[in-house]
Amino acid sequence: MKKRILLLAGGQSGEHEVSLMSARSVLAALPRDQFDVTPVVISKQGRWLPPTDTARALETGEAQGGGDLVLHRVASAEGYDAVFPLLHGPMGEDGTIQGLLTLAGIPFVGSGVLGSAASMDKVMTKQVLASAGVPQVAWKLATRRDWKDRPESVKQSAEELGFPLFVKPANLGSSVGISKVSRPEELTAALDLAFSLDRRVILEAMTRHKPREVEVGILGNDAPIASPVGELSFDADFYDYETKYTAGRAQMHIPARLPQDVAKRVRDLALTAFRALDCAGLSRVDFFYVEETGELFLNEVNTMPGFTTTSMYPKLFEAAGISYSDLVTRLVNLALEER
Ligand code: ADP
Ligand code: MG
Ligand code: MG
């Protein structure tokens, strides 16, 4: 019997559009002899669009219309064998939708509540990975309350890390709200921006030289495998939103031009991180490699990485001999697997 799959796309985060792009690719690639796929686009307001509005949203990228609130629909989403929550960022990749699906008793693609939440929050990720011995840049946490009541102590934290440094909302993606702060005078604006988007903000020391950005894909549940390592190169000062989503701004290199021992360390550390954070299904694990010093730092773990046919994660597995359509099939089967 064909498995009935509910493909969720769009969602309430700043990465809504990115998700729609990924969903078009996945929808086209899931083999129809094995799966009966129903797409549902979630609007930015959190409403599940009915079929015609979903079709229009996938076509035009404009998710308009009414529909039920997420909570209503999940509670009545029985009848599906599995859900593919192809959603990025808050309310999609952070454990919230995973919690609802768990309550509803429906298997789903990707990490569960714990892995999703721990990987989404950059501070929590750093804490977990530190205890697993994974190398990371120096960092400090500040809360909105700290910034309001004790701004001098937040500035002091920045001084201790030194400039330039990065200021980031703890729970976002796609570089939204991230600033590179080169001088103390730029700090207030960077913190105001980050705190307008999140209650928790991470301050991060910058690597001593502009790092090379290398990424690896992980696939599996309790016996995960690592893809070959890939690299992104670009001219911009850092990998910001524009560079990520403007065609031609960044180049992908697969495999990354790395010494063999470095590539091996990347893959091993990524597997360690995947296990330490209790991830499942898939993750793309991103690193900074400082060529001048040979240092390697784990930057972040993305539990639902960009998933168009030209995105890094599927390209990495294509290089390992797993086609895009095989990859999505495997992911759904991993969701259905007994664990
Ligand atoms: P997101 O989850 O939004 O992708 P990242 O933590 O990956 O956020 O940061 C986005 C980009 O900012 C990185 O890909 C890199 O170019 C730059 N960056 C972030 N942190 C640092 C750092 N500590 N040192 C150097 N570059 C950094
Ligand atoms: Mg991210
Ligand atoms: Mg990133």
Helix and strand topology:
Blueprint: E1 3-10, H1 16-29, E2 35-42, E3 47-48, H2 51-60, E4 68-69, H3 70-75, E5 82-85, H4 96-104, H5 113-120, H6 122-131, E6 139-143, H7 144-149, H8 151-161, E7 165-169, E8 179-181, H9 187-197, E9 200-205, E10 212-220, E11 225-234, H10 241-245, E12 250-253, H11 260-276, E13 281-290, E14 295-302, H12 312-319, H13 324-336
Parallel strand pairs: 1-2, 1-5
Antiparallel strand pairs: 3-4, 6-9, 7-8, 7-9, 10-11, 10-13, 11-12, 13-14
The structure holds adenosine-5'-diphosphate and magnesium ion (2 copies).
Any overview of this molecule?
The protein has 339 residues and is α+β, with helices and mostly antiparallel strands. It folds into three domains: 3-108, Rossmann fold (3-Layer(aba) Sandwich); 119-135 and 209-336, D-amino Acid Aminotransferase, Chain A, domain 1 (2-Layer Sandwich), CATH 3.30.470.20; 139-205, ATP-grasp fold, A domain (Dna Ligase, domain 1, 2-Layer Sandwich), CATH 3.30.1490.20. The chain is built from 13 helices and 14 strands. It has helices at residues 16-29, 51-60, 70-75, 96-104, 113-120, 122-131, 144-149, 151-161, 187-197, 241-245, 260-276, 312-319, 324-336, and strands at residues 3-10, 35-42, 47-48, 68-69, 82-85, 139-143, 165-169, 179-181, 200-205, 212-220, 225-234, 250-253, 281-290, 295-302. A hairpin with a 4-residue loop joins strand 13 (281-290) and strand 14. The radius of gyration is 20 Å and the shape is globular. The mean pLDDT is 95. Bound molecules: adenosine-5'-diphosphate and magnesium ion (2 copies).
